[in-house]
Amino acid sequence: MSLTPAILFGSKNTSPAVTQTVGVSGTGKSFFLNRMLKATRVKDMGPLWRGVVFDIKHDGYADLVEGEKKFGVCTTYAQFVKSIKDNKITVIHPEIGESYDFLDEVIEHLFSLARRIEGFTATLVLEESNTYIGTHASAIPMQIKRLATQGRSLNLSLVLANQRSLSNKWTDTQSQRLILFRTAIPDHEMLKKKWGVCGVTLDKKLSEKKFSFAEFNLETLEVQFYEPIPGPNEGAFKGPTKSENVPVVGTDGQA
User: Fold this and answer.
1) Rounded average pLDDT over 33-62
2) Statement: the pTM of the whole predicted model exceeds 0.90
C-alpha cells in the first residue's frame, strides 16, 4: 500500500497513532509534510478533520495559511481556537518561552473538540519535537504522552518531526512508522541498533536522488523507498510515488 496523506495523517484504534519523520536540514522533511498537508482531501479525511502544525522554528508552513481569505499564522491560543474552528489547516508559531504551556493547551483543546463534536478528527504535526521529548519516558510532557496513547481512540494522531532520530524508547513503542530522509551519521548506528536498518545503505540509496525518502513500517519491519516530492509548479500532487527498493534491514552496509 502506497503512502498517502490519509494514511500518514489518519488514525485508527488498531494501530499506533504516532509517525516519526527524520531528516537533517535541507533534505526535504518539512517540504514533504507541507505538501502532504496540502494534498489532504475531504473525501479521504472527512469534513471535520483538522491539521495543526506546531512549529517552533517558524519556517516551512506559513504558505499553507497565508494569502487572500486565509487566516494566517497563529501566535496565541485565542487565535488557534478561532482558526481551528473554520480552517482545515492551522499553523502555530509559538515563542520558545511559552511553547510548553501553549502546546499543552493545544492538545487539551484537540481532546475537548474530539469529545464534543461527532466526526471530529485531527493531526498534530510537532516540529523539532526533540525540544519537548527527552531520552526517557519521564522526560516527555504528559499531554504528548496522552495524545500518543489515548488519541487514537478519538481519531487524533501525532507526527513528530526532527533533524535527528529521537532516542526515546517509549516514543518508539507508540510509533507506527518512520519517514526517513537523509540522516546524520550518528543516527546510522542508532537505526542499526534499534531496528536492524543499515543506515549506511539507506543513506547511499537516498543520496542518489535529492529529497527522496523511505518509509519504515514499525509493525511489518518493511522499508519502502519513494521518489522526491514534486514541487508546487510540477503539476497536481496526490501522494508520493514508490521507487525501486534495496535491502536495508539486516544488511551490514558493505559493498
Assistant:
1) 94
2) yes
